Amino acid sequence: MGKETRIGILTAGGDCPGLNAAIRGVGKSAIIEYGMRVFGFRDGFSGLINCDYKELNEKSLSGILTLGGTILGTSREKPFKGPELSDEESILSKPEKIKKTYENLGLDCLVCIGGNGTMKTAYKLYQSGLNVVGVPKTIDNDVWGTDYSFGFYSAVNIATEAIDRLHTTANSHKRTMVVEVMGHNAGWLALYSGIAGGGDIILIPEIKYNKKVIKKYLENRQKGGKPYSIIVVAEGIDIPLKKDGSTRNYSAGTYISRIVEEMTGLETRETKLGYIQRGGAPSPEDRIIATGLGEHAARLISEKKYGLMSAYDSHEIISIPLADVAGKTKIVPVDNPLIKMARSLGTCFGDTLPQE
Ligand code: F6P
User: Fold this and answer.
1) Per the domain annotation, does 1 fall within a domain?
2) Where does residue 77 fall: left (phi above 0), alpha (psi -120 to 50 degrees), or beta otherwise?
3) Is position 140 annotated as part of the catalytic site?
4) Average pLDDT over residues 192-200
């Protein structure tokens, strides 16, 4: 009989709906289909550094498909950042501690579930000699090399529902509503929720906005008898520095809300959705995406294929080298068909006015 295969799993970076579905996807198929042993590390890379883990079995992986958050915990620990040597109690650097944990546990592979930062760390660990497989998650949809990562559609649902609710209160009071959504430096979440929620103006980091265009567009809506407007703002859009060159201590949504009221005199209110977008149960799409990506990771390990990330190419699950993913971000191409579609319905992206 050959040696049993032992794998480690961790979830790192910001949490998102679907992490537990992915842990279950990897873990259950590793145990049931391939007879592997599975060890879950607590709080992302911190668990690997501190050898903090628990063995996962079919029982502990049951009943978690629909749960938000992550049963393993997460952190933003970046083991390759910061001073090479840790405190005086130890002469081992964090990557060396990780290697020690990996070797002491007799792991054959480590599955890193996370976003862009996690894939970068996963690649570095792979370069340092560990067997690693990546599984992409993010509400931002910005992991390079995959059409879908789980977390995104749940966040789109939450943001869309919020925008729907803003429509009725905006209409009652004849106000302009600014809603800020997450997305880091990419506009995917604003674009999808903005279109699904019928936002009148959608501002994303990939398209430079012009204040005068926003003003004119809102005035035209008023003139056209439309008493209220919804502006969906991605948190990552550029906002100007203060006169003294320092950054503003308020967010993109607040900035847009203030200038809109100043420029137009329209009564304007701001809503920042924040962490609500990351919490709670995953949508059915995200459960399926996470399960598929997780199951594929276990399959890659069973075939001894390492240094790869599970990914979606349209509806097909594929794998791509972590080397290709590390250090890149998937932003919204300005010729994205959804932008063209929304523009032809009169939606404004802050750069030009729709055809009058
Ligand atoms: O990457 C996911 C994300 O939720 C971004 O949309 C957001 O900018 C960031 O994480 C917030 O991070 P933190 O959890 O560190 O506050």
Assistant:
1) no
2) beta
3) yes
4) 98
